[in-house]
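User: Could you go from structure to sequence for me? I need the amino acid at each position, not a summary. Structure tokens:
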């Protein structure tokens, strides 16, 4: 099957809200089946693009490339491949970039990435590698023609001393050549709009796509929030813990809350929505259906 890959920045320029879904490379045969089940169930929604993560500590390089190639070759989807600076020399990163180009990929999300030991470990650049995401953006601009995205953090990166510093880091990545940004997930639309306003005030006008993670598992989302630095609203935590033994009730609340967040984001002028699917499709499809029902 396969179709010609489009550039995300061109798709954003249409002025219509974008719809995008994130997947991660599976580690098992069962995980592979779950991933491709989700991709096939979400493909009919005709998302603007999908993206595939690189794995903690750069641990899934081969699997990421395999999934990305298969999406390019076997689906109608435009794909964004994650790329990090973790555990790789400049030469190894260049080799990966070449492989992505040869696979027909036209979009890359350039990230520093988490340390191999996890996001709470101290960041130590690889010997002969890159230290920051803006260096990776600049490298991608040297001799390739990728559309380049970067990460943004509405509540600040866990390692940033303050939100203002984080805005400066985002602007630096844009100055290095980034075309768009996707945010870490968050629960309060006001945090997203503050980030956008501060970034615009600093002279950066790249589209910033908000990231949304529907709650489908209470413990899991709380762990993710703790690791990412996202504030987990106490009132939402109370609602979820009251029904945490009922998976369907948890998902219903998660879908309701995420749908309301999405409505606020679109009403406020967000250029689109990016869903962290966790390789599942049900909650994302339910939110999509509610938003398109009016």
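Assistant: Here is the amino acid at each position, in order:
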């Amino acid at each position: 099957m396969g179709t010609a890959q489009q550039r995300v920045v061109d798709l954003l320029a249409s002025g219509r809200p974008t719809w995008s879904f994130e997947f991660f490379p599976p580690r098992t045969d069962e995980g592979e089946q779950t991933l491709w089940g989700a991709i096939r169930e979400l493909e009919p929604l005709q998302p603007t693009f999908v993206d595939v993560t690189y794995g903690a500590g750069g641990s899934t390089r081969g699997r990421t490339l395999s999934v990305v190639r298969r999406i390019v070759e076997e689906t109608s989807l435009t794909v964004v491949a994650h790329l990090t600076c973790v555990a790789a020399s400049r030469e190894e990163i260049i080799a990966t970039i070449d492989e992505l180009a040869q696979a027909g990929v036209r979009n890359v999300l350039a990230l520093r990435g988490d340390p191999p030991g996890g996001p709470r470990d101290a960041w130590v650049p690889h010997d002969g590698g890159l230290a920051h995401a803006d260096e990776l953006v600049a490298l991608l601009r040297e001799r390739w023609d990728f559309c380049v995205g970067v990460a943004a953090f509405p509540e600040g990166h866990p390692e940033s001393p303050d939100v203002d510093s984080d805005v400066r880091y985002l602007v630096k990545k844009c100055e290095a050549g980034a075309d768009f940004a996707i945010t870490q997930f968050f629960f309060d639309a006001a945090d997203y709009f503050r980030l956008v306003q501060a970034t615009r005030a600093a002279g950066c006008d790249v589209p910033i796509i908000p990231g949304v993670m529907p709650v489908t598992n209470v413990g899991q989302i709380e762990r993710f929030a703790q690791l990412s630095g996202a504030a987990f609203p106490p009132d939402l935590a109370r609602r979820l813990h009251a029904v945490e033994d009922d998976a369907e009730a948890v998902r219903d609340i998660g879908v309701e809350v995420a749908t309301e967040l999405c409505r606020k984001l679109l009403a406020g002028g967000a250029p689109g929505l990016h869903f962290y699917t966790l390789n599942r499709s049900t909650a994302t499809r339910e939110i999509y259906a509610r938003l398109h029902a009016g």
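One structural detail worth keeping in mind: The chain has one domain: 8-288.
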